[in-house]
Write a structure and sequence with these properties.
about 260 residues, mainly beta, SH3 type barrels, Fumarylacetoacetate hydrolase, domain 2, 2 domains, five-stranded mixed β-sheet, about 40% strand, globular
Amino acid sequence: MNWARIRTAEGNTVTGVIEGGHLHPRTALGSADGAGNPVALDTATLLPPVEPHKFIGLWNNFHASAEKAGNTIPDHPLFFLKPLSSLAGPGATVTIPPEAGRVIFEGELGIVIGAPVTRATEEEAAHAILGYTCVNDLTAIEVLTADPAFPQWTRAKGFDGFGVIGPVIATDLDWQALSVKVTVNGRERQSYPAADMILPPARIVSRLSHDMTLMPGDVIACGTSLGARPVKAGDAVEVVIEGIGALPVTMAAAG
């Protein structure tokens, strides 16, 4: 099942399930209750599939990249928060502010929470996962390390549009069978298996739920692996995960 969120031709925002080229509205994310007539997708605009309460990103969560960088293996998620104003959806144009400097893409698998979860076991956490989406965790890499006394994770990853998610939330996926790929102007630049993850999704959700209550719609980006690199204005960047879909954005210069 694929969940999506659209803006209709009349300007209404609707959440529902995609089937047969239509979005079938539901009363809420994850609900089985209908909420109106189907909407043809070719008459609507895809939005970020959810508006999260929290947008959490992980760092150093893949064996290959940890080994290359010489990082130790974490036993608890190393995480940061992206402001909700950074949220963008499929087909967005993302402006690179002059203050951002060099910006890199980071293609990632995103977890979407479907039920409130706090201090959960891994089994309980697994049941709280609604599904998975694509994430492009854009990062102003020079901003991150500009002050040697304080890595600026929130600022570097928090510019408007730097948290791209979509196109849908796919349920009933085997995350271990997925591969995360990124193309820039049609050329593959990143490709890695989700199975190389250090902390798997249920463990991520369980551990984070001991730090904060996770709510329906919250998004957790599972971290990236090798291959993330700079992008510039004019580049067409697309994150692709088979079973979820393609998440394209176009980078643009300020002004």
